[in-house]
Design the sequence.
């Protein structure tokens, strides 16, 4: 069997419905279609779209790397704390990372272990965001 980042290279039309293609392939096709659509819209004086995938929440280094190559920013990125090389790439390119510690706390990583403060200290371009604010709120209302 062939090993590597994309172990099975086949066109999208050949992927069976029961099997999902790799995230890297998904990222590429979504990015390519958004770029085409954005160009079409800009020619008509309309706003363009940005590609901001939700990735890097649950040990998906390949997804973060493909997002580095294609995305304007990423939502999530908590597993990036285990991959300093990827952090450095995001730092150099100043690619934005949208972090939602309350959501991550509920689903992936303890609030006290969230890498947002560490990323901020290192100079990565991070910002806080909300994911399902009605679901992850911490008020008495």
Sequence:
């Amino acid at each position: 069997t062939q090993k590597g980042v994309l172990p099975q290279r086949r066109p999208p039309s050949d992927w069976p419905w029961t099997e999902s293609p790799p995230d890297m392939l998904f990222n590429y096709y979504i990015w390519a279609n958004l770029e085409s659509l954005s160009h079409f819209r800009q020619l008509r004086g309309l706003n363009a779209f940005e590609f901001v995938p939700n990735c890097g929440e649950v040990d998906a280094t390949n997804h973060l790397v493909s997002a580095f190559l294609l995305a304007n920013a990423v939502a999530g990125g908590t597993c990036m704390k285990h991959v300093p090389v990827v952090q450095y790439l995001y730092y150099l390119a100043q690619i934005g990372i949208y972090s939602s510690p309350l959501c991550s706390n509920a689903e992936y990583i303890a609030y006290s272990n969230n890498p947002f403060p560490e990323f901020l200290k290192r100079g990565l371009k991070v910002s806080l965001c909300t994911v399902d604010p009605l679901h992850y709120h911490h008020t008495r209302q």
The first strand starts at residue 54 and ends at 55. Helices lie at 23-43, 61-70, 84-93, 101-107, 116-122.
